Amino acid sequence: MSARADNAFDQWYMLAISDELAPQQARRYQLLGLPVVLWRGEHEARAWLDQCPHRGAALSLGAVSGESLACPYHGWQFDAAGRCRHYPAH
């Protein structure tokens, strides 16, 4: 990727109005051709790449519980910082 393209990802973009994203909700958006999940736990909204690092499932199809987002495929739960905190099969 060129320096100019890298710089495009180092910017702020508006994908939605805050009121459009209710607590405990996840929604899929597109940003510069990439799928992005916007989700809100009980408090803050977050934006992540809409892909589970385990099997690539769309996190936007998962469930929000408290301050965690769960993958719809295997149920891995990621905390607000993006760390996987729960592996249901382990």
Description:
The chain is mostly beta strands. It has a domain at 31-90: Rieske Iron-sulfur Protein, CATH 2.102.10. Helix content is 7%, strand content 33%. The protein is built from one helix and seven strands. The chain has one helix spanning 3-8; strands spanning 25-31, 34-40, 45-49, 63-65, 68-70, 77-78, 84-86. The strands form two sheets. The chain has a four-stranded antiparallel β-sheet with strand order 4-5-6-7, with no helix packed on it. The relative contact order is 0.15.
Strand order of the largest sheet: 4-5-6-7
Which structural class should the secondary elements be placed in? mainly beta
Strand/helix succession? HEEEEEEE
Tell me the β content.
Answer: 25-35%
Instruction: Pick out the low-confidence regions.
Output: none
Can you count the helices? 1
Helix content: under 10%
User: Could you give the distance between the termini?
Assistant: 38 Å
Q: In CATH, what is the homologous superfamily of the domain at 31-90? A: Rieske [2Fe-2S] iron-sulphur domain
Sum up the overall morphology in one term: globular
Subunit arrangement of the protein: single chain
Query: How would a textbook summarize the main sheet?
Result: 4 strands, antiparallel
CATH class of the domain at 31-90: Mainly Beta
CATH topology of the domain at 31-90, what is it called? Rieske Iron-sulfur Protein
**Number of β-strand runs:** 7
Radius of gyration equals 14 Å
